[in-house]
């Protein structure tokens, strides 16, 4: 089916192109022209589907948030399956960190939320969701501390081009979940 006969497919291609552009080069480089080139659509199509660059950017950020929610659901299932054991949580974090593009996209979403308060609810979904998942296995304070640590581990991996060692992750997660749960229970 051609893109003309599939307007939703064309729109989706432009959103994916915007996500790729922002993930690879940052929010500041996003233009209708770059998205049109990446999506292989006429420049006019980008303004037809997205009247403003802000509309396109928000659609891309919403797409990233939706992917994060899918990832979080998968991770939650795996954490539940391992009974919330620090080893299992560390394993899931390592698997997540192995996909650099996904991690970069998540951080584009965070960065947008830092500078634009209207986008903060999208940016907060991951850490709030992870806190909720972990709360089934420890206290709410320990869950939040662990989720925040996991976000820091993500940033560390991006800035150092390598994640923390699995054993380090497990030890920190175990300490946060156990220490904080004793302090607040």
Write a structural description.
Helix content is 79%, strand content 0%. It has 185 residues and is an all-alpha fold. The longest helix has 29 residues, at 53-81. It is elongated, with a radius of gyration of 19 Å. It starts with 6 loop residues before the first helix and ends with a helix.
Radius of gyration: 19 Å
Helical content (DSSP H or I, runs of 4+): over 70%
Total number of helical segments?
Answer: 9
Shape: elongated
Tell me about the biggest sheet?
A: none
Topology order in helix (H) and strand (E) letters = HHHHHHHHH
Distance between the termini: 58 Å
- In round numbers, the mean pLDDT is 91
Got a strand count?
0
Query: Helix/strand/pairing class, anyone?
Result: mainly alpha
Q: Indicate the low-confidence ranges by residue numbers.
A: 180-185
Percent of residues in β-strands: under 5%
Q: What is shown here, in short?
A:
By secondary structure, the chain is mainly alpha-helical. 79% of the residues lie in helices and 0% in strands.
Compile the SSE list and pairings:
Blueprint: H1 7-25, H2 32-39, H3 43-49, H4 53-81, H5 86-97, H6 100-115, H7 120-135, H8 140-160, H9 166-184
Can you give keywords for this protein?
mainly alpha; 185 residues; 79% helix
